[in-house]
Amino acid sequence: MTNGAADAKSGGDEADAWRARLGWAFSLIADDPTEREAALAHLDGARRNAWAALDRWNELWHLTRPLGAEEQYQEPAFKRAYEVYADMCSRTLPEGLWVGEGGDGPRLPYALLFLEWEARFPHEWTEYAKAWGAKQSLIRRMAVTDHNQLTRSKLIDLVEIVVQRAYRCKDREYVRVARAVDGEDLRHRLGTAAASDNPWARLHASYVLWLLDRPEVPNTRHVWRTWVAEASGRQHGSAGSHG
Known about the structure:
Layout: H1 3-22, H2 33-64, H3 69-72, H4 76-89, H5 104-120, H6 122-129, H7 132-142, H8 149-163, H9 174-180, H10 184-194, H11 199-212, H12 221-241
């Protein structure tokens, strides 16, 4: 088998392993509420299994502690308990995003899934898998310029969704993504949002467009607050000039 064929087989095996662990999770973003409810029930069960495995691992940690650190981690029951815990974590969210082999290749669809779930169904995400640190980390990993067209389109969709809502924790990180996937499609969507009747969309989309035209400007809280104050002043001035 050539190296290329071996790599392809390895990549396929890794993708299959990810699908076996987390393939069910795509139903979390289904349009059908019944399908989402079933996926949420699956997630709840998977997390309970992980917690039970953690309890067992902690129990054995206390029992084997007298052996000393080196011997403890070689004790068969303790090692097996940890393996079971890691396996249970790999089948849930967001823990499963950081478990397993394959890097960002096979992980990518599930990282995008997690972000799309938070963007489209924020209340369900918050109730079942709230993890602001994971959200921030995944957004930052997505903020690169070498994505294929399918992934770019998905990220543009996410930016468009996020700018149209009231701010949620770590939404500011999406400016990184907008800068990474900047282009005609994104700017057209942001322009449409900035001209809409939605006050959040007008504010957020206009700010992102302003930053896209100024790649040297950092996206800090100070910059945001200054821009909002100046935008408010311009609006009041415009209203007065027409009044």
